[in-house]
Amino acid sequence: MKKTDCLSLLYSSKNSNTPSFEIKTLESLTACAGTAGTPAFNHHQFRIFWITRGAGLFHIDMQRFDILSGQLFCILPGEVHLIQSGEDLEGYVISFTRNFLSIGDIDPDMAHHPDGITQLFEHCKTIQASNDSIPDMALIMERLLKEYNSSDAFRLELLNRYFKIFLIYLSRQVDTNGALASHSRTVGLVQRFMDLLNHNFKEMRMVADYARQLAVTPNYLNESIKRSTGHPASYHIRQRIALEAKRQAAYSDVCMKEIAYYLGFSDSAHFSKFFKNTTGMNFTDFKKEKFAIPMAS
């Protein structure tokens, strides 16, 4: 593989038949040469990349990470991602929906609870697996692969159980006092707000819109979000819109007018002012200095 080769997973964000769970090896995905160099994203699935061998760069939105053997990358729904490989990679890719975690779930443990996994993914983009855990995690991965490719009875239930065991191993690799805070009403409210925001940021611009959906007052929502994240709900609304604008600017060739229209702004001037006030950089400068990904030659 050339040093400039890029490996990406391209899933349609409009696919209504999104699988609840998928597992593949990185080696099998290198055969998908048609998607090379294309940033990937999906609105419905979480993704875990586990690099067991190789080196290179991993791009998540506007962040760039060096790849190390034994490293895991956690991708939230909607996050743009791409692997730029400097060497042949080995490892696994798991894609799953929030609903998959709820199958047969009677234990609200944060290691595999739907709210807990979102917290984990938000706080830990990269996780380095410990040498002691790698053999057990690899064994679980092989069992997941075998079961995924089978057609035996209770296949989905076994996949769900094996995967939850893997998530427990994953949660042990991080600081449980930081990434996996104790579940509370506030944590649940924050997660419901973030979920609503990710799905409705283009249409719902006011804190009151979200407060109405969450059956709380705007002041209570702002204070709860600020207490948990350090910023009020209004800040997160602006940042989510700005993030989508940066994604469009960095990963596509569309112009400012098209992005403004896509995000629901009445005109380019309004959008330009919003972008500068929110990001601290005007749109033209950002577009020139945008996050560049070397394309395959």
Tell me what the structure shows.
With 297 residues, the chain is an alpha+beta fold. It has two domains: 6-172, Regulatory protein AraC (Jelly Rolls, Sandwich); 185-288, Arc Repressor Mutant, subunit A (Orthogonal Bundle), CATH 1.10.10.60. 44% of the residues lie in helices and 16% in strands. The chain has twelve helices and nine strands. It has helices spanning 26-29, 98-101, 114-123, 134-148, 155-172, 185-200, 207-214, 218-229, 233-251, 256-262, 268-279, 283-288, and strands spanning 6-7, 21-25, 45-53, 56-60, 63-67, 71-75, 81-85, 90-97, 126-128. The strands form two sheets. A five-stranded antiparallel beta sheet has the order 2-8-3-6-9. Strand 4 and strand 5 form a beta hairpin. The relative contact order is 0.11.
Task: Output the keywords.
2 domains; five-stranded antiparallel β-sheet; four-stranded antiparallel β-sheet; disordered N terminus; globular; Jelly Rolls; 297 residues
**Straight-line distance between termini:** 11 Å
| Helix content, binned percent | 40-55%
How many beta-strand segments? 9
The CATH architecture assignment of the largest domain turns out to be Sandwich
Specify the CATH homologous superfamily of the largest domain.
Answer: Regulatory protein AraC
Number of domains: 2
Structural class, from helix and strand content? alpha+beta
List the helices and strands and how they pair.
Layout: E1 6-7, E2 21-25, H1 26-29, E3 45-53, E4 56-60, E5 63-67, E6 71-75, E7 81-85, E8 90-97, H2 98-101, H3 114-123, E9 126-128, H4 134-148, H5 155-172, H6 185-200, H7 207-214, H8 218-229, H9 233-251, H10 256-262, H11 268-279, H12 283-288
Antiparallel strand pairs: 1-7, 2-8, 3-6, 3-8, 4-5, 4-7, 6-9
Helix pairs in contact: 4-5, 6-8, 6-9, 7-8, 9-11, 10-11
